[in-house]
Amino acid sequence: MENMIKNKGFTLIELMIVVAIMGILVAIALPAYNTYFDRSKFAEAALAASPLKTNIDVAIQTKSPTLLTELKGGLLGIPTDVTATSTVHGTSVINGKITVTWKTDGTALQGITYTLTPSGVTSPVAWTQGGTCLSNGFC
């Protein structure tokens, strides 16, 4: 009887096919992951707008402004505007509209804005979300 040797394992072509399939999956998944990561990171900008929103709500309830133009950074208890730097997000309030600008950190998010616009100076205030984050898919 001849010695029958059974080979166990994978051939080189089978391994190459698996590597090719993995490469395709990574090429598809990586950009989607980066977008998801940037979206989750941009939530930081929405959080930066929250205290300003509260300050404007308090100013409307306690200072009784008659026009949105009275709601500016540095007035009626609203913090002064902050310019975006490499470590700090920029924030501003003009005519009641809150704008948060992503810091100048060299990432894909740099310069992207998040805005909240009030419906008026009568409580309860409805807020409308906007900014370049909408067109870029970050908010």
Please render the helix and strand layout as text.
Elements: H1 12-63, E1 90-94, E2 97-101, E3 113-118, E4 127-130, H2 132-136
Antiparallel strand pairs: 1-2, 2-3, 3-4
Structural overview:
The chain has 139 residues and is α+β, with helices and mostly antiparallel strands. It has a single domain, classed as Glycoprotein, Type 4 Pilin, CATH 3.30.700. It is 41% helix and 14% strand. It contains 2 helices and 4 strands, in the order αββββα. Strands 1-2-3-4 form a 4-stranded antiparallel β-sheet. A hairpin with an 8-residue loop joins strand 3 and strand 4.
Short characterization:
This protein is of the alpha+beta class and 139 residues long.
The residue fraction in helices comes out at 40-55%
Strand order of the largest sheet: 1-2-3-4
Category from helices, strands and their pairing: alpha+beta
For the largest beta-sheet, the strand count, sense and barrel status come to: 4 strands, antiparallel
Globally, the shape reads rod-shaped
Which stretches are low in confidence, meaning pLDDT under 50 for 5 or more residues running? Answer: none
Question: Strand share of the residues?
Answer: 5-15%
What is the domain tally?
1
Span between termini = 73 Å
Give the SSE string: HEEEEH
Which CATH-level-2 architecture? 2-Layer Sandwich
What is the CA-based Rg, rounded?
A: 26 Å
CATH topology: Glycoprotein, Type 4 Pilin
By DSSP, the count of extended strands is 4
Q: Mean pLDDT, nearest integer?
A: 92
Number of alpha- plus pi-helical segments: 2
What is the CATH C level class, in words?
Alpha Beta
